[in-house]
Amino acid sequence: MNDKGMPGLLSPEHVLHTITEELTARFAGTFTAETIERYVFESYAALARTAKVTSHLPALTDRFATDRLTALAQSKGLHPHDVPEVLFVCVQNAGRSQIAAALLDHHAAGRVHVRSAGSSPIEQIHPAVLEVMTELGLDLSREFPKPLTDDVVRAADVVITMGCGDACPIYPGKRYEDWALTDPADASPQEARRIRDEIDAHVKTLLAEIAPGT
User: Fold this and answer.
1) Domain that holds residue 54
2) pLDDT digits (tens, 9 = 90+) for 172-181
3) Domain-terminating residue out of 75, 95, 112
4) Is residue 92 within 8 Å of residue 122, measured between CB atoms?
């Protein structure tokens, strides 16, 4: 059985149609079935470009498409949010942006909603990143690199880029920052810790500015 509770021999297309049906029910009154189907199939195709093992793709597609549809609803005012939305973007979405997203989510404790994405995402998060985040009690093992999409940028109040150049579209009314940080892709454990702690300092400053603690 796969993550959707269906036999593993079902074709990817069949599974994607099942995901579409479930999301159509979830977003009833917000989006048409045609829009949801397009998002599901586009999300699957985007993730499949970097996947070497496809067995988990349906479950990841479900999560990715759900998040994109939620972001789309937010950007259109159909799903209002009462906390700031922050998007972290780096090249691979396998290091800096994942660290920043996990740290901000942890420190904010519900005062901020966080997303991350990559301009050229790879298959999985860097092992050194998983290790140094686990040292802080933050488990990133269920996270995965996600492609940067227009919907998540439109939904964000704050967009933080990290070495991805001009890949992120600019929209008025949003706060943009670029953090100059070393990529931990081939970092030693010691260097990865240094990068993590540098990101943590940036994150705490950002949080104090956009969602001061009560």
Assistant:
1) 12-75
2) 889 999 999 9
3) 75
4) yes
